[in-house]
Amino acid sequence: MQFTSTRNSKLSVKFSQAVKSCIPEDGGVYVPSPDAIYDLRRWIYYINEETSFSSIAGTLTSAFMQDEISPILCETIATTAFPFKPNVKQLDKNLFQMELFNGYTGCYRDFGVSYLCSYLETTQQLYGGSTLFLDYTSGELGSLLCNVLRNKKHIKAVILYRKGTVRGISKEDLIFNGGNILPIEIDASESQIKEMLRQVFADKEFVKENNISVANTTNVCRLMSQVFYYPYSFAQIKNKIDGEIYYASDAGNYSTLMSGLYSWRFALPVNGFYMPATSALSCDLQGNPKVLDSFVDLSKRDESNPVDPANLERLENFFSLNGIMMRNFVFPVEVDEKAREKAAKELYMKYGVFADRATASAYASVINDAEEIYDENGAVVLISQNHPSLDADYCRHVLGQVPSMPDNVKESLIPLELNKAPLTSAEEIKNLIKNTF
User: Fold this and answer.
1) What's the rounded Cα separation, in Å, for the pair 378 and 139?
2) What are the DSSP calls for 149-189, one per residue?
3) SS3 258
């Protein structure tokens, strides 16, 4: 499969190059070329409830790679990446829930990061090379990378934290103890840390010399791995419904929406995506979806910042030739706190589902249209991205009860004292990387 840039449609690179360079030189982000996505309709209708998640991932990996690596290696990448799978539950006759919190840390990103690392380790072991992740986290990314990078030979990670927030990292996984993780505390705010990272990535020579990349969905490999959710969920429910299928998810950084749209381009039967509206993706006075950034020409925008995934720019690119299709495919819905709490209570009272704030918001966005969908024998698949115990305060406030927290999620929250002086600038970050690696 060929990939192009959101800011230069004439660019054409293979999947491996898009993953390696992470961001095109024109400052956009990589997207699949419009004419390069295969119609997998026959395959999609062939898969069923017995088809494993890793098998679906392996088939789609082969579609991404084409002739770059063999189908056997594609299967190896998928099998290694996914010792876990989404959990698709039927809540009602026409309502399903897809849980994406069954991985290492109880977060949906477990799938994408594990796949990205499996792809990099497999291909770099085959062809040579190495990768150094450089990311900021306010959550459990460090813990996730500890699990994923253990025993890997070709990938290491530098993770930046605000001072006093390092957690979920085992001492044996630290660089100094023979592991692959270097956590760094920064004495600054989140926005200041992200600006430091932008400065580091702006030094393209330094980035190239040190093979630096990111583990977020700026890297198209992370994004494309989320495509796997949708055919898997379709395979699980296809024999239980007769009508149209709609997905509902929280907006997040819009990667779940984009991966769903790419699934549709592979000919996945899906009729629309509901999500709570945001300041960046909302509706105009006529109720049509609008992307705020669209009012600024691409040529006048800053380069994409690797630290902040530009999935809205990908959304603009996806619908650039057909704005009418976007109006009939993406449904941002205004969701206030009252509607969110009502949705959370309904999920718990009717189905026994603990909903975190994001899942409740997603359900609230589709709840008003659900009966109309059901009347046509259609289905709604509610996507739950993170384990509800990670939002226990919200559950307690709305429901008066909290879900139990799995042991693996508890371990990802255990704080770690680094006992090292925090850094304060981009130059200090660069110097530490030079001296360490």
Assistant:
1) 36
2) HTT-SSEEEEEEEETT--BS--GGGBGGGTSSEEEEEESS-
3) helix
- The two tokens of residue 326 are 């976007």
Does this model's pTM top 0.90? My answer is yes
Give CA separation, 273 vs 247, 257, 304, in Å. Answer: 5, 7, 25
> Which strands make up the sheet holding 30-32, listed edge to edge?
8-14, 2-5, 30-32
**How far is residue 390's CA from residue 415's CA, in Å, rounded to a whole number?**
15
**Number of alpha helices (DSSP H) and beta strands (DSSP E) in the chain:** 18, 15
Per-residue tokens: 40: 């997998």
The β-bridge relationship of strands 8-14 and 87-90 is unpaired
Q: What is the pLDDT of residues 312-350, one digit of tens each?
A: 999 988 888 666 778 889 999 999 999 999 999 999 999
Are the C-beta atoms of residues 97 and 89 closer than 8 Å to each other?
yes
CA 136 to CA 186: how far, in whole Å? Answer: 10
Find the angle CA(376)-CA(359)-CA(115) to the nearest 5 degrees. 100
Contacts 24+ apart (CB under 8 A), 404-413: 406/106, 408/104, 408/105, 408/106, 409/105, 409/106, 411/143, 411/168, 412/104, 412/105, 412/106, 412/140, 412/143, 412/144, 412/167, 412/168, 413/140, 413/167, 413/168
Residue listed under structure tokens 């929406």: 257
3-state secondary structure of 246: strand
Strand 2-5, strand 8-14: pairing: antiparallel
Burial of residue 351, with CB atoms counted within 10 A of its CB: 0-12 exposed, 13-18 middle, 19 or more buried: middle
Among 231, 221, 222, CA closest to 55: 231
**3-state class of 211 per DSSP?**
coil
d(CA 215, CA 7): 22
Cα gap 183→166, rounded to integer Å = 7
Write down the residue that tokens 């057909």 correspond to: 322
Distance from C-alpha of 170 to C-alpha of 408, rounded to nearest angstrom: 13
Q: pLDDT by residue (tens digit) across 136-181?
A: 998 889 999 999 999 999 999 999 999 999 999 999 999 999 999 9
